[in-house]
Task: structure prediction
Amino acid sequence: MADQEEEDLRMALRMSMQHSPPEPKRSKPRENVAVTSIDSSEESPEIKARRLQRELMAAAAERRMMMGKNTGSISTLERPVGLNVSDNAVPVVIEDKRVSTGPGSEKVETLGYGRLLSHDEANQLFSIIFGGGVSRDILAQWTNQGIRFSPDPETSMGLVQHEGGPCGVLAAIQAFVLKNLLFSPDKFGWQDPGSTRSSKSEWDVFSCLTEDGKTRALVRSIGEILSLCGSNRRVVIATLNVLGHENKSSKDGPGAYLMQIDSKGLETLSIESALDLQRIIRVNECTSPASAFKKLEAMVPEFQSRMGAMLFLISALLSRGLDSIQTDRDDPSLPLVTAPFGHASQEIVNLLLCGQAVPNVFDGRMDFGGGMFLKGIPVNVEVGFLTLLESLNFCKVGHYLKYPKYPIWVVGSESHYTVLFALDTSVQDENELEVRESQIRKAFDAQDQSGGGGFISVEGFHQVLKETNINLPPEKLDYLCNTGFIVRSEFWQVLLDLDKSLGGLKDSTGLMGKKVFDIYHFNGIAKSVVNGTQLGEIPVQRPRLTKLRVSVPPRWTPEEFIADMAATSVSTEKDAVVEVSKPEPCQHAPLVDCIRTRWPRALCNWVGDPPSIV
Result:
Protein backbone atom coordinates (compact mmCIF):
# COMPACT_ATOMS: atom_id res chain seq x y z
CA MET A 1 0.00 0.00 0.00
CA ALA A 2 2.82 2.37 0.86
CA ASP A 3 4.52 1.62 -2.48
CA GLN A 4 1.28 2.38 -4.35
CA GLU A 5 0.96 5.73 -2.56
CA GLU A 6 4.53 6.62 -3.51
CA GLU A 7 3.84 5.73 -7.14
CA ASP A 8 0.67 7.86 -7.13
CA LEU A 9 2.64 10.79 -5.74
CA ARG A 10 5.39 10.44 -8.35
CA MET A 11 2.75 10.30 -11.10
CA ALA A 12 1.15 13.50 -9.79
CA LEU A 13 4.53 15.25 -9.80
CA ARG A 14 5.29 14.08 -13.35
CA MET A 15 1.91 15.24 -14.60
CA SER A 16 2.46 18.64 -12.97
CA MET A 17 5.42 19.24 -15.27
CA GLN A 18 3.67 18.45 -18.56
CA HIS A 19 2.97 21.26 -21.03
CA SER A 20 -0.75 20.47 -21.23
CA PRO A 21 -1.40 18.43 -18.12
CA PRO A 22 -4.39 16.11 -18.08
CA GLU A 23 -6.83 16.08 -15.23
CA PRO A 24 -5.28 14.38 -12.20
CA LYS A 25 -6.36 10.80 -11.71
CA ARG A 26 -7.68 9.71 -8.33
CA SER A 27 -8.52 6.22 -7.18
CA LYS A 28 -11.32 7.71 -5.08
CA PRO A 29 -13.21 11.00 -5.06
CA ARG A 30 -11.82 13.67 -2.74
CA GLU A 31 -14.86 13.60 -0.46
CA ASN A 32 -14.43 9.87 0.14
CA VAL A 33 -10.77 10.16 1.10
CA ALA A 34 -11.44 11.70 4.46
CA VAL A 35 -14.18 9.17 5.19
CA THR A 36 -12.10 6.12 4.44
CA SER A 37 -8.88 7.37 5.97
CA ILE A 38 -7.65 6.10 9.27
CA ASP A 39 -8.46 8.20 12.31
CA SER A 40 -5.42 10.44 12.90
CA SER A 41 -5.66 9.88 16.63
CA GLU A 42 -4.91 6.17 16.05
CA GLU A 43 -1.87 6.78 13.83
CA SER A 44 1.68 6.58 15.10
CA PRO A 45 3.71 9.85 14.86
CA GLU A 46 5.87 8.36 12.07
CA ILE A 47 2.87 7.32 9.95
CA LYS A 48 1.16 10.66 10.54
CA ALA A 49 4.23 12.63 9.49
CA ARG A 50 4.64 10.47 6.37
CA ARG A 51 0.95 10.88 5.42
CA LEU A 52 1.02 14.65 5.93
CA GLN A 53 4.19 14.96 3.88
CA ARG A 54 2.58 13.07 0.98
CA GLU A 55 -0.58 15.16 1.13
CA LEU A 56 1.36 18.42 1.18
CA MET A 57 3.54 17.43 -1.74
CA ALA A 58 0.53 16.20 -3.70
CA ALA A 59 -1.15 19.54 -3.04
CA ALA A 60 1.97 21.29 -4.29
CA ALA A 61 1.88 19.14 -7.42
CA GLU A 62 -1.73 20.11 -8.03
CA ARG A 63 -0.92 23.76 -7.52
CA ARG A 64 1.91 23.36 -10.03
CA MET A 65 -0.50 21.82 -12.51
CA MET A 66 -2.91 24.71 -12.17
CA MET A 67 -0.04 27.18 -12.72
CA GLY A 68 0.93 25.18 -15.83
CA LYS A 69 -2.58 25.55 -17.23
CA ASN A 70 -2.47 29.31 -16.86
CA THR A 71 1.08 29.95 -18.08
CA GLY A 72 1.92 26.95 -20.24
CA SER A 73 5.47 27.10 -18.89
CA ILE A 74 7.84 24.18 -18.99
CA SER A 75 10.27 23.58 -16.15
CA THR A 76 12.04 20.77 -14.44
CA LEU A 77 11.67 19.91 -10.80
CA GLU A 78 13.90 17.73 -8.72
CA ARG A 79 12.49 16.66 -5.42
CA PRO A 80 14.82 17.66 -2.57
CA VAL A 81 15.85 15.25 0.11
CA GLY A 82 13.52 15.49 3.11
CA LEU A 83 15.51 15.61 6.34
CA ASN A 84 13.32 15.43 9.46
CA VAL A 85 10.50 17.28 7.75
CA SER A 86 8.17 18.96 10.20
CA ASP A 87 4.37 18.82 9.85
CA ASN A 88 4.07 22.26 8.27
CA ALA A 89 6.92 21.80 5.82
CA VAL A 90 6.11 22.35 2.16
CA PRO A 91 8.34 22.40 -0.87
CA VAL A 92 9.49 25.76 -2.15
CA VAL A 93 7.78 26.63 -5.41
CA ILE A 94 10.24 27.10 -8.24
CA GLU A 95 10.01 30.44 -9.90
CA ASP A 96 11.15 30.56 -13.53
CA LYS A 97 12.56 33.59 -15.27
CA ARG A 98 12.48 33.63 -19.07
CA VAL A 99 15.56 35.11 -20.69
CA SER A 100 15.58 35.86 -24.40
CA THR A 101 18.60 34.32 -26.16
CA GLY A 102 17.72 35.25 -29.70
CA PRO A 103 14.89 35.30 -32.23
CA GLY A 104 12.43 32.49 -31.64
CA SER A 105 14.30 31.14 -28.64
CA GLU A 106 13.83 31.47 -24.95
CA LYS A 107 16.01 30.28 -22.06
CA VAL A 108 14.47 29.45 -18.70
CA GLU A 109 16.67 30.50 -15.78
CA THR A 110 15.61 28.41 -12.80
CA LEU A 111 15.55 30.23 -9.48
CA GLY A 112 14.41 27.32 -7.37
CA TYR A 113 16.01 24.16 -6.03
CA GLY A 114 18.73 23.94 -8.66
CA ARG A 115 20.61 20.73 -9.37
CA LEU A 116 22.62 18.23 -7.41
CA LEU A 117 26.38 18.02 -7.81
CA SER A 118 27.63 15.27 -10.06
CA HIS A 119 29.85 12.55 -8.64
CA ASP A 120 32.95 14.01 -10.33
CA GLU A 121 32.11 17.58 -9.23
CA ALA A 122 31.65 16.52 -5.62
CA ASN A 123 34.94 14.58 -5.58
CA GLN A 124 36.88 17.44 -7.16
CA LEU A 125 35.29 20.04 -4.88
CA PHE A 126 36.01 18.10 -1.69
CA SER A 127 39.59 17.39 -2.79
CA ILE A 128 40.28 21.04 -3.65
CA ILE A 129 38.95 22.29 -0.32
CA PHE A 130 40.13 19.64 2.14
CA GLY A 131 42.52 17.31 0.34
CA GLY A 132 42.70 13.63 1.18
CA GLY A 133 43.58 13.51 4.89
CA VAL A 134 41.35 16.08 6.59
CA SER A 135 40.53 15.61 10.27
CA ARG A 136 37.03 15.61 11.70
CA ASP A 137 37.93 18.63 13.85
CA ILE A 138 38.66 20.72 10.75
CA LEU A 139 35.45 19.55 9.07
CA ALA A 140 33.51 20.47 12.22
CA GLN A 141 35.03 23.97 12.22
CA TRP A 142 33.87 24.61 8.66
CA THR A 143 30.38 23.16 9.11
CA ASN A 144 29.54 24.90 12.37
CA GLN A 145 29.99 28.56 11.43
CA GLY A 146 27.11 30.73 10.31
CA ILE A 147 27.32 34.19 8.77
CA ARG A 148 25.57 36.17 11.52
CA PHE A 149 25.84 39.67 12.93
CA SER A 150 26.82 40.35 16.51
CA PRO A 151 23.88 40.98 18.88
CA ASP A 152 26.09 43.31 20.91
CA PRO A 153 25.17 46.99 20.21
CA GLU A 154 28.81 48.15 20.14
CA THR A 155 29.75 45.58 17.48
CA SER A 156 26.40 45.26 15.71
CA MET A 157 28.01 45.87 12.31
CA GLY A 158 30.30 42.86 12.74
CA LEU A 159 30.05 39.18 11.91
CA VAL A 160 30.67 36.83 14.83
CA GLN A 161 33.12 33.94 14.60
CA HIS A 162 32.70 31.04 17.02
CA GLU A 163 34.91 28.41 15.39
CA GLY A 164 38.52 28.59 14.30
CA GLY A 165 39.20 28.08 10.61
CA PRO A 166 36.68 30.08 8.52
CA CYS A 167 37.99 33.47 9.72
CA GLY A 168 39.42 34.26 6.27
CA VAL A 169 36.00 33.82 4.69
CA LEU A 170 34.22 35.85 7.39
CA ALA A 171 36.81 38.65 7.31
CA ALA A 172 36.44 39.06 3.53
CA ILE A 173 32.63 39.21 3.80
CA GLN A 174 32.99 41.61 6.75
CA ALA A 175 35.18 43.93 4.68
CA PHE A 176 32.58 44.12 1.88
CA VAL A 177 29.76 44.61 4.40
CA LEU A 178 31.64 47.58 5.88
CA LYS A 179 32.27 48.94 2.38
CA ASN A 180 28.54 48.94 1.68
CA LEU A 181 27.46 50.24 5.09
CA LEU A 182 30.05 53.03 5.23
CA PHE A 183 30.14 54.20 1.64
CA SER A 184 26.59 53.46 0.42
CA PRO A 185 24.64 54.11 3.66
CA ASP A 186 21.52 55.48 1.95
CA LYS A 187 20.87 52.06 0.39
CA PHE A 188 20.63 50.38 3.77
CA GLY A 189 18.46 52.74 5.77
CA TRP A 190 20.91 54.57 8.00
CA GLN A 191 22.60 57.93 8.19
CA ASP A 192 25.94 58.67 6.54
CA PRO A 193 28.60 58.04 9.23
CA GLY A 194 30.53 61.02 7.91
CA SER A 195 27.71 63.32 8.96
CA THR A 196 27.25 61.80 12.41
CA ARG A 197 30.72 61.13 13.73
CA SER A 198 31.22 64.74 14.80
CA SER A 199 28.27 64.53 17.18
CA LYS A 200 28.25 60.82 18.04
CA SER A 201 30.79 58.23 19.00
CA GLU A 202 31.49 55.41 16.56
CA TRP A 203 29.58 53.05 18.84
CA ASP A 204 26.44 55.20 18.54
CA VAL A 205 26.80 55.32 14.76
CA PHE A 206 26.91 51.56 14.40
CA SER A 207 24.14 50.99 16.95
CA CYS A 208 21.79 52.91 14.63
CA LEU A 209 21.90 50.07 12.11
CA THR A 210 18.66 48.15 11.63
CA GLU A 211 18.47 44.38 11.22
CA ASP A 212 16.87 44.82 7.82
CA GLY A 213 19.59 47.23 6.72
CA LYS A 214 22.36 44.89 7.86
CA THR A 215 20.74 41.93 6.11
CA ARG A 216 20.46 43.85 2.85
CA ALA A 217 24.11 44.90 3.14
CA LEU A 218 25.07 41.27 3.75
CA VAL A 219 23.13 40.06 0.71
CA ARG A 220 24.67 42.76 -1.47
CA SER A 221 28.17 41.94 -0.19
CA ILE A 222 27.82 38.21 -0.80
CA GLY A 223 26.45 38.94 -4.27
CA GLU A 224 29.33 41.29 -5.10
CA ILE A 225 31.95 38.75 -4.02
CA LEU A 226 30.34 35.87 -5.92
CA SER A 227 29.95 38.05 -9.01
CA LEU A 228 33.63 38.98 -8.72
CA CYS A 229 34.51 35.28 -8.56
CA GLY A 230 32.33 34.66 -11.61
CA SER A 231 34.05 37.45 -13.61
CA ASN A 232 30.76 39.41 -13.53
CA ARG A 233 29.24 36.87 -15.92
CA ARG A 234 27.60 34.41 -13.54
CA VAL A 235 26.91 33.63 -9.90
CA VAL A 236 26.65 30.06 -8.63
CA ILE A 237 24.82 29.70 -5.31
CA ALA A 238 25.12 26.56 -3.19
CA THR A 239 22.11 25.69 -1.04
CA LEU A 240 21.14 22.88 1.28
CA ASN A 241 19.17 20.00 -0.16
CA VAL A 242 16.38 20.22 2.44
CA LEU A 243 12.70 21.07 2.44
CA GLY A 244 11.69 24.58 3.47
CA HIS A 245 8.70 26.35 5.01
CA GLU A 246 6.27 28.58 3.21
CA ASN A 247 6.66 32.24 4.06
CA LYS A 248 3.14 33.67 3.80
CA SER A 249 4.35 37.23 4.31
CA SER A 250 6.69 37.22 1.32
CA LYS A 251 6.95 40.62 -0.31
CA ASP A 252 7.26 38.98 -3.73
CA GLY A 253 3.60 38.04 -3.87
CA PRO A 254 1.81 34.69 -4.32
CA GLY A 255 3.94 31.76 -5.35
CA ALA A 256 7.21 33.21 -3.99
CA TYR A 257 8.64 31.59 -0.91
CA LEU A 258 11.67 32.10 1.28
CA MET A 259 13.65 29.13 2.48
CA GLN A 260 13.46 28.59 6.21
CA ILE A 261 15.81 25.90 7.46
CA ASP A 262 14.31 23.04 9.46
CA SER A 263 16.45 23.00 12.61
CA LYS A 264 15.82 19.32 13.26
CA GLY A 265 16.85 18.42 9.74
CA LEU A 266 19.93 20.60 9.99
CA GLU A 267 21.11 18.78 13.09
CA THR A 268 21.48 15.59 11.07
CA LEU A 269 23.61 17.20 8.35
CA SER A 270 27.34 16.56 8.27
CA ILE A 271 30.06 16.78 5.64
CA GLU A 272 32.76 14.16 6.02
CA SER A 273 33.27 13.10 2.40
CA ALA A 274 32.59 13.97 -1.22
CA LEU A 275 29.52 11.72 -1.05
CA ASP A 276 28.06 13.99 1.65
CA LEU A 277 28.57 17.02 -0.60
CA GLN A 278 26.72 15.26 -3.41
CA ARG A 279 23.91 14.30 -1.06
CA ILE A 280 23.17 17.59 0.69
CA ILE A 281 24.31 20.37 -1.69
CA ARG A 282 22.33 21.83 -4.60
CA VAL A 283 23.59 24.57 -6.88
CA ASN A 284 21.81 27.33 -8.78
CA GLU A 285 23.49 29.28 -11.56
CA CYS A 286 22.32 32.84 -12.20
CA THR A 287 23.48 34.87 -15.18
CA SER A 288 21.82 38.17 -14.29
CA PRO A 289 22.45 40.33 -11.21
CA ALA A 290 18.73 40.65 -10.50
CA SER A 291 18.15 36.89 -10.36
CA ALA A 292 21.30 36.38 -8.27
CA PHE A 293 20.34 38.93 -5.63
CA LYS A 294 16.78 37.63 -5.51
CA LYS A 295 18.04 34.11 -4.92
CA LEU A 296 20.55 35.25 -2.30
CA GLU A 297 17.88 37.20 -0.46
CA ALA A 298 15.77 34.05 -0.27
CA MET A 299 18.72 32.00 0.99
CA VAL A 300 19.73 34.29 3.90
CA PRO A 301 18.50 31.77 6.51
CA GLU A 302 20.79 29.14 5.03
CA PHE A 303 23.81 31.44 5.13
CA GLN A 304 22.93 32.24 8.75
CA SER A 305 22.71 28.54 9.60
CA ARG A 306 25.68 26.60 10.91
CA MET A 307 26.49 25.61 7.32
CA GLY A 308 26.67 29.25 6.18
CA ALA A 309 30.45 29.70 5.83
CA MET A 310 30.78 26.38 4.02
CA LEU A 311 27.94 27.18 1.60
CA PHE A 312 29.49 30.56 0.81
CA LEU A 313 32.94 29.07 0.14
CA ILE A 314 31.45 26.43 -2.15
CA SER A 315 29.47 29.15 -3.95
CA ALA A 316 32.63 31.20 -4.50
CA LEU A 317 34.60 28.22 -5.82
CA LEU A 318 31.83 27.13 -8.19
CA SER A 319 31.27 30.70 -9.38
CA ARG A 320 34.94 30.86 -10.37
CA GLY A 321 34.84 27.30 -11.75
CA LEU A 322 36.84 24.42 -10.28
CA ASP A 323 39.14 24.12 -13.29
CA SER A 324 39.83 27.88 -13.20
CA ILE A 325 40.58 27.64 -9.45
CA GLN A 326 43.24 25.03 -10.12
CA THR A 327 44.69 27.08 -12.98
CA ASP A 328 44.95 30.15 -10.71
CA ARG A 329 47.10 28.35 -8.16
CA ASP A 330 50.86 27.78 -8.17
CA ASP A 331 50.50 24.33 -6.55
CA PRO A 332 47.06 22.78 -7.23
CA SER A 333 47.93 19.65 -5.25
CA LEU A 334 47.61 21.41 -1.90
CA PRO A 335 44.18 21.83 -0.23
CA LEU A 336 42.71 25.31 0.14
CA VAL A 337 42.01 24.69 3.84
CA THR A 338 45.43 24.32 5.43
CA ALA A 339 46.49 21.68 7.94
CA PRO A 340 46.83 21.19 10.85
CA PHE A 341 44.52 23.93 12.13
CA GLY A 342 42.08 24.32 9.24
CA HIS A 343 42.78 27.95 8.40
CA ALA A 344 41.69 29.54 5.14
CA SER A 345 44.65 29.75 2.78
CA GLN A 346 45.81 32.95 1.12
CA GLU A 347 44.29 31.59 -2.08
CA ILE A 348 40.81 31.64 -0.53
CA VAL A 349 41.25 35.20 0.73
CA ASN A 350 42.62 36.39 -2.62
CA LEU A 351 39.73 34.71 -4.46
CA LEU A 352 37.22 36.66 -2.37
CA LEU A 353 39.11 39.96 -2.74
CA CYS A 354 40.14 39.91 -6.40
CA GLY A 355 38.15 37.06 -7.96
CA GLN A 356 41.12 34.75 -8.60
CA ALA A 357 42.59 32.08 -6.30
CA VAL A 358 46.19 33.23 -6.73
CA PRO A 359 48.52 32.32 -3.85
CA ASN A 360 50.67 35.47 -3.59
CA VAL A 361 50.08 39.08 -2.53
CA PHE A 362 52.44 40.96 -4.85
CA ASP A 363 51.20 42.69 -8.00
CA GLY A 364 50.95 40.80 -11.27
CA ARG A 365 53.12 37.85 -12.19
CA MET A 366 56.74 37.16 -11.26
CA ASP A 367 58.54 35.50 -14.17
CA PHE A 368 61.67 33.43 -13.48
CA GLY A 369 62.27 32.37 -17.07
CA GLY A 370 62.07 28.94 -18.62
CA GLY A 371 58.31 28.93 -18.25
CA MET A 372 58.49 29.27 -14.46
CA PHE A 373 56.51 32.03 -12.77
CA LEU A 374 54.49 32.89 -9.67
CA LYS A 375 51.04 34.46 -9.74
CA GLY A 376 50.03 37.52 -7.74
CA ILE A 377 47.13 39.97 -7.67
CA PRO A 378 46.19 40.83 -11.28
CA VAL A 379 43.96 43.91 -10.85
CA ASN A 380 43.04 46.82 -8.60
CA VAL A 381 40.70 45.82 -5.77
CA GLU A 382 37.94 47.52 -3.79
CA VAL A 383 38.99 45.99 -0.45
CA GLY A 384 42.66 45.49 0.42
CA PHE A 385 44.92 43.26 2.47
CA LEU A 386 47.73 43.80 4.99
CA THR A 387 49.70 41.14 6.80
CA LEU A 388 51.94 40.84 9.83
CA LEU A 389 54.19 38.58 7.73
CA GLU A 390 55.33 41.58 5.70
CA SER A 391 56.65 43.30 8.83
CA LEU A 392 58.62 40.09 9.48
CA ASN A 393 60.03 40.18 5.91
CA PHE A 394 58.33 36.96 4.84
CA CYS A 395 56.50 38.60 1.93
CA LYS A 396 55.79 41.91 0.23
CA VAL A 397 52.21 43.10 -0.27
CA GLY A 398 51.81 44.84 -3.60
CA HIS A 399 50.26 48.17 -4.46
CA TYR A 400 46.92 46.68 -5.51
CA LEU A 401 46.15 45.23 -2.09
CA LYS A 402 47.85 47.95 -0.06
CA TYR A 403 46.03 50.80 -1.79
CA PRO A 404 42.46 49.58 -2.44
CA LYS A 405 39.62 51.76 -3.69
CA TYR A 406 38.10 51.95 -0.19
CA PRO A 407 40.02 52.32 3.11
CA ILE A 408 39.26 48.78 4.26
CA TRP A 409 41.79 45.97 4.68
CA VAL A 410 41.61 42.33 5.70
CA VAL A 411 44.50 41.89 8.15
CA GLY A 412 46.34 38.57 8.29
CA SER A 413 48.43 37.24 11.14
CA GLU A 414 50.05 33.82 11.51
CA SER A 415 46.74 32.25 12.60
CA HIS A 416 43.82 34.65 12.15
CA TYR A 417 42.17 37.24 9.89
CA THR A 418 40.63 40.50 11.12
CA VAL A 419 39.55 43.79 9.50
CA LEU A 420 40.98 47.33 9.58
CA PHE A 421 38.91 50.24 8.27
CA ALA A 422 38.39 54.00 8.29
CA LEU A 423 35.11 55.94 8.17
CA ASP A 424 36.10 58.08 5.19
CA THR A 425 38.40 57.88 2.19
CA SER A 426 40.62 60.82 3.16
CA VAL A 427 43.07 58.48 4.89
CA GLN A 428 43.91 57.19 1.41
CA ASP A 429 44.79 60.63 0.08
CA GLU A 430 48.49 60.90 -0.70
CA ASN A 431 50.48 64.04 -0.02
CA GLU A 432 53.49 65.10 -2.07
CA LEU A 433 55.92 62.89 -0.19
CA GLU A 434 53.72 59.80 -0.38
CA VAL A 435 53.17 60.26 -4.10
CA ARG A 436 56.93 60.41 -4.60
CA GLU A 437 57.51 57.40 -2.35
CA SER A 438 54.90 55.37 -4.22
CA GLN A 439 56.41 56.28 -7.57
CA ILE A 440 59.89 55.14 -6.52
CA ARG A 441 58.61 52.02 -4.75
CA LYS A 442 56.59 50.87 -7.75
CA ALA A 443 59.57 51.36 -10.07
CA PHE A 444 61.81 49.39 -7.69
CA ASP A 445 59.25 46.57 -7.26
CA ALA A 446 58.87 46.26 -11.03
CA GLN A 447 62.57 45.32 -11.23
CA ASP A 448 62.54 43.08 -8.15
CA GLN A 449 62.60 39.44 -9.27
CA SER A 450 63.50 38.09 -5.83
CA GLY A 451 59.95 37.29 -4.76
CA GLY A 452 59.73 40.29 -2.44
CA GLY A 453 63.27 39.91 -1.09
CA GLY A 454 63.98 43.59 -1.70
CA PHE A 455 66.96 43.62 -4.05
CA ILE A 456 67.48 44.23 -7.79
CA SER A 457 70.26 43.99 -10.35
CA VAL A 458 72.51 46.90 -11.31
CA GLU A 459 70.88 46.99 -14.74
CA GLY A 460 67.44 47.16 -13.15
CA PHE A 461 68.65 49.87 -10.76
CA HIS A 462 69.73 52.15 -13.61
CA GLN A 463 66.24 51.67 -15.10
CA VAL A 464 64.70 52.77 -11.77
CA LEU A 465 66.84 55.90 -11.66
CA LYS A 466 65.87 56.75 -15.22
CA GLU A 467 62.11 56.24 -14.67
CA THR A 468 62.02 58.26 -11.44
CA ASN A 469 64.41 61.10 -12.42
CA ILE A 470 66.82 60.48 -9.53
CA ASN A 471 70.26 62.10 -9.93
CA LEU A 472 72.65 60.31 -7.57
CA PRO A 473 76.15 61.71 -6.96
CA PRO A 474 78.85 59.42 -8.40
CA GLU A 475 80.11 58.35 -4.97
CA LYS A 476 76.57 57.30 -3.88
CA LEU A 477 76.04 55.41 -7.13
CA ASP A 478 79.32 53.52 -6.72
CA TYR A 479 78.47 52.74 -3.10
CA LEU A 480 75.13 51.15 -4.01
CA CYS A 481 76.41 49.21 -7.05
CA ASN A 482 79.69 47.83 -5.69
CA THR A 483 78.18 44.47 -4.66
CA GLY A 484 76.49 43.75 -8.00
CA PHE A 485 72.97 44.15 -6.63
CA ILE A 486 71.06 46.94 -4.87
CA VAL A 487 69.26 46.37 -1.56
CA ARG A 488 66.04 48.30 -1.03
CA SER A 489 66.84 49.44 2.53
CA GLU A 490 70.25 50.86 1.51
CA PHE A 491 68.74 52.60 -1.51
CA TRP A 492 66.03 54.12 0.66
CA GLN A 493 68.53 55.46 3.17
CA VAL A 494 70.41 57.21 0.35
CA LEU A 495 67.12 58.75 -0.85
CA LEU A 496 66.40 60.11 2.64
CA ASP A 497 69.67 62.03 2.54
CA LEU A 498 69.18 63.20 -1.06
CA ASP A 499 67.47 66.55 -1.53
CA LYS A 500 64.15 66.47 -3.35
CA SER A 501 65.60 68.82 -6.01
CA LEU A 502 67.79 65.87 -7.06
CA GLY A 503 64.88 63.43 -6.91
CA GLY A 504 65.35 62.39 -3.28
CA LEU A 505 63.06 62.52 -0.26
CA LYS A 506 64.88 65.06 1.92
CA ASP A 507 62.64 68.00 2.78
CA SER A 508 64.17 71.05 4.48
CA THR A 509 60.83 72.03 6.05
CA GLY A 510 60.44 68.68 7.82
CA LEU A 511 56.64 68.95 7.60
CA MET A 512 56.19 67.09 4.34
CA GLY A 513 54.27 63.86 4.93
CA LYS A 514 52.68 64.59 8.32
CA LYS A 515 49.24 62.98 8.79
CA VAL A 516 46.83 62.36 11.68
CA PHE A 517 43.67 60.24 11.36
CA ASP A 518 41.46 57.68 13.11
CA ILE A 519 41.18 54.06 12.07
CA TYR A 520 39.21 51.11 13.46
CA HIS A 521 40.02 47.46 13.99
CA PHE A 522 37.42 44.68 14.20
CA ASN A 523 38.15 41.18 15.46
CA GLY A 524 35.10 38.98 14.91
CA ILE A 525 36.10 36.06 17.08
CA ALA A 526 33.98 35.98 20.23
CA LYS A 527 36.19 36.39 23.30
CA SER A 528 35.59 37.17 26.94
CA VAL A 529 35.46 40.94 27.41
CA VAL A 530 35.98 42.21 30.94
CA ASN A 531 36.72 45.86 30.17
CA GLY A 532 34.12 48.12 31.70
CA THR A 533 32.34 45.38 33.66
CA GLN A 534 31.57 45.93 37.30
CA LEU A 535 33.08 43.85 40.05
CA GLY A 536 31.48 40.44 40.20
CA GLU A 537 29.96 40.59 36.70
CA ILE A 538 30.48 37.63 34.37
CA PRO A 539 32.57 38.55 31.30
CA VAL A 540 30.56 38.47 28.07
CA GLN A 541 31.55 36.69 24.86
CA ARG A 542 31.60 39.19 22.01
CA PRO A 543 33.76 40.53 19.17
CA ARG A 544 36.00 43.56 19.68
CA LEU A 545 36.00 46.92 17.95
CA THR A 546 38.96 49.20 18.72
CA LYS A 547 39.50 52.81 17.68
CA LEU A 548 43.11 53.82 17.00
CA ARG A 549 44.56 57.30 16.63
CA VAL A 550 47.25 57.16 13.96
CA SER A 551 49.92 59.87 13.61
CA VAL A 552 52.42 59.78 10.77
CA PRO A 553 55.27 62.16 11.68
CA PRO A 554 57.51 63.97 9.18
CA ARG A 555 60.15 61.92 7.40
CA TRP A 556 62.85 62.82 9.91
CA THR A 557 62.67 62.15 13.63
CA PRO A 558 62.20 65.29 15.82
CA GLU A 559 65.85 65.17 16.94
CA GLU A 560 67.17 65.04 13.38
CA PHE A 561 64.81 67.82 12.32
CA ILE A 562 65.74 70.10 15.21
CA ALA A 563 69.45 69.54 14.56
CA ASP A 564 69.00 70.38 10.90
CA MET A 565 66.88 73.46 11.67
CA ALA A 566 69.46 74.71 14.17
CA ALA A 567 72.06 74.71 11.42
CA THR A 568 69.90 76.28 8.69
CA SER A 569 67.17 78.29 10.42
CA VAL A 570 66.98 82.03 9.88
CA SER A 571 65.44 84.35 12.45
CA THR A 572 62.29 86.15 11.42
CA GLU A 573 61.56 89.84 12.09
CA LYS A 574 60.52 88.92 15.63
CA ASP A 575 63.50 86.56 16.01
CA ALA A 576 61.03 83.69 16.23
CA VAL A 577 62.58 80.25 15.74
CA VAL A 578 60.70 77.38 14.16
CA GLU A 579 59.90 74.69 16.72
CA VAL A 580 58.77 71.13 16.21
CA SER A 581 56.53 69.54 18.80
CA LYS A 582 57.46 66.11 20.02
CA PRO A 583 54.97 63.35 19.19
CA GLU A 584 52.73 61.83 21.85
CA PRO A 585 53.98 58.63 23.47
CA CYS A 586 52.86 55.77 21.27
CA GLN A 587 51.60 52.28 22.10
CA HIS A 588 52.60 49.08 20.42
CA ALA A 589 50.89 45.84 19.42
CA PRO A 590 51.35 43.48 16.45
CA LEU A 591 48.58 45.38 14.65
CA VAL A 592 50.79 48.49 14.68
CA ASP A 593 53.42 46.56 12.71
CA CYS A 594 50.74 45.77 10.11
CA ILE A 595 49.67 49.43 9.94
CA ARG A 596 53.28 50.49 9.40
CA THR A 597 53.47 48.37 6.26
CA ARG A 598 50.87 50.78 4.86
CA TRP A 599 51.96 53.98 6.65
CA PRO A 600 55.67 53.77 7.53
CA ARG A 601 56.65 55.50 10.80
CA ALA A 602 53.02 55.49 11.99
CA LEU A 603 52.50 56.04 15.73
CA CYS A 604 49.32 54.56 17.25
CA ASN A 605 47.32 55.16 20.40
CA TRP A 606 44.13 53.59 21.76
CA VAL A 607 42.07 53.31 24.93
CA GLY A 608 41.78 50.05 26.84
CA ASP A 609 43.24 46.68 25.93
CA PRO A 610 45.54 46.41 22.90
CA PRO A 611 43.79 45.39 19.68
CA SER A 612 44.28 41.68 19.01
CA ILE A 613 44.92 40.11 15.60
CA VAL A 614 44.85 36.54 16.93
